[in-house]
Please model this.
Amino acid sequence: MIRWISRAATCVSLAAFAVCCALVAQSQNVLKLEPAVLADSPVVPQMLADSDGTLHLGPRTIPFPALASKEAKRAYARQMVQRSQASAAKGGLASARILDGNTPAAAENSKALALRIFPVVEETSKIGGVGVTIYSPKAIPAKNRHKVVMEFEIDAEAIAVASLGELKVVKVNYRGGGPSIPGNEAIVAVYRELLKTYKPKNIGMFGASGGCTLAQTTLLWLPVQKLPQPGAVGLNTCSGGSNPGDARFTMNGLDASLSTVFSGRPPYGGRDATPRKASEPPATALDGEIPKGYPPAMLLSGTRDMCLSQTALLHRKLRNAGVSADLNVYEGMWHVFWENPDLPETREAMQDLANFFNRHLE
Model:
């Protein structure tokens, strides 16, 4: 449903409206560039990041959105300034400007902060020969003792879901350091072992960025492994460097995590020339066909996330395949913003994810 919001008509004459527009135009210091300059504009812009979160990209100035939280604004400004300062020190395209009263505070370690905000019991172990970190609430309610959720990539999100959902979360410390076949193999090894204790519908999976890609490609690979689908999946902004979505370019400079303005590299470097075999898992989250029995999915992204396009397209692909899929996009948020455990947006997103698993896991 689309709701149109209108305002009551005012009694302003056309003449008065024209005068108003003229005054507004005079009050704006507009920098007009020659068409040839615009035509030769670089794909990766030069950027100045202010310590209040305002960005200056060439002739454009973009403030941090007013509808996001104050905590998010501080975290965003801190990340943009620190990364811009590091870029400037190396002669890169980004630089920072510290405004009066806006010196960004140092960030606390993400996992340590998450453990303080979301109390859990931490245990290291091995499942199926793969190293794992198990996060559990201090007391698991009876309704959740037969449930388990597998997480890939980020300790902070595993900790938050374990605490908020009162669920056992097994963080798989997969091999390969990112989306790769060894990562898929490690996840399948853990899943195969968990199936000896839990029913498929009792098991959930989720991951962020590269871990999101591994979650999706593993689900597409399970039929080849002759394994059943789990009960639910959380797809938290799947990395998409080999899929040149629109957000890969339009958000370059705005994304506090992925922007290549900090490195000077192009936002899209071309697709992997080595095709995957039919017996191997797909390379990216947008490859492959959605298998029968694919579980309900929750997808998460932000309006400044360079992987927003991949997330939106994956949502449509799942919906077109008849999958129950819920897309959640947060205002002003960047790639994997929930790695900052102290944001209101993080608590809301992780609470939604925890509730999602509690609704769908049997």
